[in-house]
Design goal:
Layout (H helix, E strand, L loop, with lengths): L6 H46 L57 E8 L14 E5 L2 E3 L1 E5 L5 E8 L8 H13 L6 E7 L3 E8 L2 H9 L9 H11 L7 E8 L10 H10 L3 E7 L10 H17 L3 E4 L5 H13 L2 E5 L10 E8 L9 E4 L2 E3 L4
Parallel strand pairs: 5-6, 5-8, 8-9, 9-10
Antiparallel strand pairs: 1-11, 1-13, 2-3, 2-12, 4-11, 6-7, 12-14
Helix pairs in contact: 2-3, 2-7, 4-5, 5-6
Length: 380
């Protein structure tokens, strides 16, 4: 018969084994936690790689091939069985191809300045549009613009300082001063003086005192290059700011020192939209000291002025100079402006003659109109 174990020893062994297991558990707990954490990490990584990997039946490096197009049983004979339509990408901006557009304006507006005088050589104001008729190459035109207001003017003073002007110089200066008195604040002026050759003494300015100061120290000497001076003034007038333009020429005779010819200057005057007014200070017809050039002077100045719608005033008594200059200034302030678009649309550069006729107002004596005789049509 086996002996029964002692209960006291049994409890002692159990307690001893329990304490040993607890100590072993304390040693194994960190290792188990480390193993569990590693297993969880491996599982999570496997889940991610599986989700991102291609399906088992589709190799990763094998490109997908689109399915064959479905056969269209309702296709129309002679037409393709399927139409490939490219889908527009969302957010893509449309491509716009721009080309410069050439805009051509073929209409031409012609402006004609008209001065109306009565038989006593007085200005006639107060006329209306219906009192005028306008013709181009004998074809009547429709007047589309009409004005009788005093618009700003760009004016060039062409002043003779040749040797023969000596005794007339002081009166000519006073004539210029009287002319400047008729100016408006918006007008602009320049000064060209000439003897053997022309010189631009004062460019464009609104201060007339500058021009008068320049004239104060002028001395007469040399010959007369009138045509060259007109050419220089026409060239300077291209810098004008105002649409209305005029030249005032004060000279005592014809040209005897210019490089340009009469024909060249007449063509230049015809091409430019500039009115020319001239004061010719000439010796009497019976004067023995009158040269052939001076004898031809009145005709030359008159032809230049007439072409542009201006006028030439012949003066024998120098005391009349200031009054005539003032009269020219007033005339420029009392002009009618007629505008029209030519019926002839050809841009051939040819010279076209202009004529202005008056419908005589009732109760007035016969009137006379002074106007520009023509212009050159624009070119292509």
């Amino acid at each position: 018969m086996r002996p029964r174990p002692d209960p006291t020893c049994l409890r002692t062994n159990v307690a001893s084994r329990a304490s040993q297991g607890a100590r072993r558990g304390k040693r194994l707990a960190p290792a188990l936690l480390t193993v569990l954490f590693a297993l969880l990490t491996i599982c999570a990584g496997s889940a991610i790689s599986i989700a991102d990997s291609p399906k088992a039946d589709t190799p990763a490096d094998t490109p997908k091939t689109p399915p064959p197009p479905k056969k269209d049983t309702d296709a129309i004979p002679g037409m393709p069985a399927a139409v490939d339509i490219e889908t527009r990408k969302t957010g893509a901006e449309p491509v716009v191809t721009s080309r410069p557009v050439d805009i051509k304006v073929n209409s031409t507006l012609v402006l004609i300045n008209v001065t109306v005088m009565d038989p006593l050589n007085r200005f006639v104001t107060g006329l209306e549009k219906e009192h005028f008729r306008l013709f181009e190459d004998k074809v009547e035109q429709q007047i589309t613009q009409f004005s009788s207001e005093d618009a700003p003017i760009s004016i060039g003073l062409v002043f003779d300082t040749s040797g023969s002007m000596g005794p007339k110089l002081q009166s000519s200066r006073r004539a210029a001063a009287e002319f400047f008195k008729t100016a408006n604040p918006s007008d602009e002026f320049f000064l060209v003086q000439f003897n053997d050759r022309p010189e631009l003494t004062q460019p464009f300015t609104t201060d007339t005192n500058l021009l008068q100061n320049a004239l104060t120290f002028t001395q007469s000497k040399g010959r007369t290059a009138l045509l060259d001076a007109v050419y220089l003034a026409m060239h300077e007038m291209k810098k004008a700011k105002n649409p209305r333009k005029a030249l005032l020429v004060i000279s005592d005779g014809g040209d005897n020192s210019s490089r340009y010819t009469e024909t060249e200057i007449k063509n230049e005057v015809r091409e430019a939209d500039v009115q020319i007014y001239a004061i010719g200070i000439f010796e009497g017809m019976a004067s023995r000291g009158r040269t052939p050039e001076e004898a031809a002077g009145p005709g030359l100045l008159n032809e230049l002025a007439e072409q542009t719608g201006g006028r030439e005033y012949a003066v024998e008594n120098v005391s009349e100079l200031p009054d005539i200059a003032a009269k020219i200034g007033i005339e420029l302030r009392n002009q009618y402006i007629l505008g029209y678009t030519p019926k002839n649309k050809e841009r051939d550069g040819k010279y076209r003659k202009v004529q202005v006729k008056l419908n005589q107002p009732r109760g007035l004596p016969p009137l006379k109109a002074y106007f520009r005789l023509g212009y050159y049509a624009p070119t292509q």
